[in-house]
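Thread: Newbie trying to understand structure tokens

Hi all, I'm a second-year student working on a class project, and my supervisor (Dr. K.) asked me to get a predicted structure for one chain before our next meeting. I've only ever worked with sequences, so writing a 3D structure as a token string is new to me. If someone could post the tokens and maybe explain what I'm looking at, I'd be very grateful. Here's the chain:
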Amino acid sequence: MEQKISNTSDLELKDRLVAINRVTKVTKGGRTFSFSAIVVVGDEHGVVGYGLGKANEVTMAISKGVEAAKKNLIKIPILNGTLPHEQTAKFGGARVFMRPASSGTGLVAGGAMRAVLESVGVKDVLAKCKGSSNPHNLVKATFAALKQLRDARMIAQQRGISLDKVFNG
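---
Reply by user tm_fold:
Sure, no problem. This is what the structure looks like when written as tokens:
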């Protein structure tokens, strides 16, 4: 269950650059280069978003990516610095698997997944990406997995029962 964040003015967001891609357009006057940048922003306390920026200069592409990321922030449940439960997701050819880890394990994830999980504020997790290593699809697959996470409070609210009934049946 994703929860959109609308008021971003009071959040301390940190941005992380995941990937920059140089794109070439061939015209009759020669080659024209432009850049696309995928950026992840987060407050490291459960709020995270990603954005794609495209421009003729790297700095402009990054700033456009940051602005796009701030427009689609979501809230992720975190329990004691790790995830509430195991989760898998897929986007395009990229598949991701995330498992909660005990305290002190650290962030065991690679590439684009690591940037997203650091921005969320997860300290201990075991994560694996399978299939495509395309950073765009990896970020989107990681977000798809994070959006599916639910903690006990959310489950109790959805079912309309008390929190202790979730555990005691």
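A couple of things are worth pointing out once you decode it. Helices lie at 58-71, 111-120, 135-147, 152-159, 163-168. The chain is about 30% helix and 35% strand. Feel free to ask follow-ups in this thread.
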